[in-house]
Every structure is written in C-alpha cells, then in structure tokens.
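Please review this pair:
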Amino acid sequence: MIGVNVKVSNNQKKMSKLSHTNEKGKANMVDVGSKPDQVRTASAEGRIFVKNETLQLIKDNQLKKGDVLTIAEIAGIQGGKKTSELIPLCHPLQITKLDVKTELFENGVIVKSYAKCIGKTGIEMEALTAVHVALLTVYDMCKAVDKEMVIGEVRLIEKNKSDL
C-alpha cells in the first residue's frame, strides 16, 4: 500500500479509541475515580456439552471427584471474586452478590451467574469469569470419563446500572 493516502475522520478516530489504552496505544487501566457510585448488575451464561454417559454420571452423582454441580457452583463464585487478579485491567470491586447456578440439559450442563456491586464500574467481567470457572470445574471433574467435552456459548445476558 505504498503511496496510498488514507484519511480518517475525527469521528472514526474517536470510535477506534479503545478505553484501555493510553495516548500511545499502550495498555492502561481506566481511571474511574470521578465516576459516581451506582448499583451495577450483570448476568452471564455458558454451556458444556458432554456425552450422554457423562451426563448420567453427573445426574446420579457417581463421579469419583464428587458432586460436580455443587462444586462447580462454589468454584464459579470463587473465580468471580478473583476476576481483578486474573484479568489485568479489571478494577477490584466490592461484590455484594455473586450467584452461580447449574442445571442439566439434554447435552450437558448450563451455568448461569448473577453478579451485583455498588461501584464506579461494571461487574460483567465477574459474571463472565464465574461462568468460565464453573464450566472449567465441570470439565476438570469429568475429564477422566469424557475426552470429548466442549465448552461454549458463553455470553453476557444482561448488564445494568442504576443510581443509588
């Protein structure tokens, strides 16, 4: 592309500016100090697809490592609480609620999370981390009996903020 001039409008420059980079394009933690405290919530979900035999073992609580669903829920809560330690530019938050629920479906396990805090920045990363850690826990507990598991469809369901 030698000799090609490309003009970028001011609007395009603003749109391409990432919030976690400084003026030199280097990683930068966003300063949220001047933002007001608000009630912030987020929910996320994801799935792990397992073989029918594995699903039956989970349902019957017959895996050697124990109660897969309960342990995954606890692990998800622990993981969500450690989000700022795992994701470099996430702010540590004062989490007031973190709930992780699992349920079986015909092809595996669905994990859903709900996170709440009062703070200056959103809590969606905690909700997503909780789901991922719970799914990884299911994987870890079932890997001896199922080498074909697939984790997927992890997504943010909802993100909200409201004034105190």
Notes: The CA atoms of residues 65 and 141 lie 6 Å apart. Helices lie at 10-16, 52-59, 68-81, 83-86, 124-142. Residues 1-9, 11-15 have pLDDT under 50 and may be disordered.
